Amino acid sequence: MIQTLAPWLVLAVALAGLAAWWWSRQARSAASPALGANDRFGAVAAISPVQWDMLSYLNQAFPGRPVLFRAGLSQLVAVRQAQNRAAAQQRLAQHIVDYVVCNRDGKAVYAFELDAAHEDEDEAALDATEKHRVLKTAGIRLIRLKRSRRHMPPPDEFRRRLRSAEIDPTATEAPPTPPADAPDTMPVPSIRRDQRAVPPDTEPMSLTGLMDLPPAPDEEDPWGSPRRR
Question: Compositionally biased, Basic and acidic residues: which spans (predicted)?
Fold first, then answer.
């Protein structure tokens, strides 16, 4: 009896799966209908004058380096470790950074948020803080620019100051110092070689904070090859 029913059970399961797939496909089609043959569209500004002005400035500050506009976080970083990898990747896909400067290998070195391009200042601050938490674990410095280009320093000075604010992605955290009254045999927790140092700041760096740093020497082509010691 069981042997007689087995083929019918397999067929029923297969038909149920096929029906579920068909309904899922129909639901997706209803949610995003195809474009009509007679649909027409008009061009809109892909970048505002304020955004274009800042993009031009960054291209002057970093000649010969890729400068990206409105790049998604999922383009810039990959999940190395997460309690929920799928959720972390989904969250990355929801964030866009206004500007990104890359090295000659195409990897992001600096990221910028332009507050003048956002309507809500509080929302811009909250958004930048979350992006900062992601980017700093990858060794990418996020700078928050609150005003337009006319408040910026000369491009070459900006570049030199910014290089002083680089995050070293190869640095490791120092082991914790045991208390003074601890016994000599007290074990010190080991630090994994791949554990990266996290800067003490919890907010994106501002232009004011950046300009307080001493300018770095403007060496020839420092990003395309290993940093000289």
Answer: 153-166
Range of the domain at 98: 49-171+197-211
Per-residue pLDDT at 26: 63
Q: Judge whether 144 and 128 are in contact, CB under 8 Å.
A: yes
| Long-range contacts from 75-81, C-beta under 8 angstroms, 24+ separation | 76/100, 76/108, 76/111, 76/135, 76/138, 76/140, 77/108, 77/134, 77/135, 77/137, 77/138, 77/140, 80/137
Report yes or no: 144 and 206 within 8 Å, Cβ to Cβ.
yes
Specify the number of domains making up the chain: 1
pTM value? 0.67
Token pair, residue 25, equals 């496909």
Low-confidence ranges of the chain (pLDDT < 70): 1-14, 17-18, 20-32, 168-202, 218-229
In a domain, 36, yes or no: no
| pLDDT at residue number 13 | 63
Residue 53 lies in a domain: yes
* DSSP state, residue 113: E
- What is the crossing angle of helices 155-163 and 49-61, to 10°? 70
Which residues make Cβ contacts (< 8 Å) with residue 111, sequence separation at least 6? 76, 97, 99, 100, 101, 131, 135, 140, 141, 142, 143
Distance, CA of 98 to CA of 69 (rounded, Å): 6
Calculate the alpha carbon distances from 72 to 78, 111, 124, 215 in Å.
12, 11, 16, 30
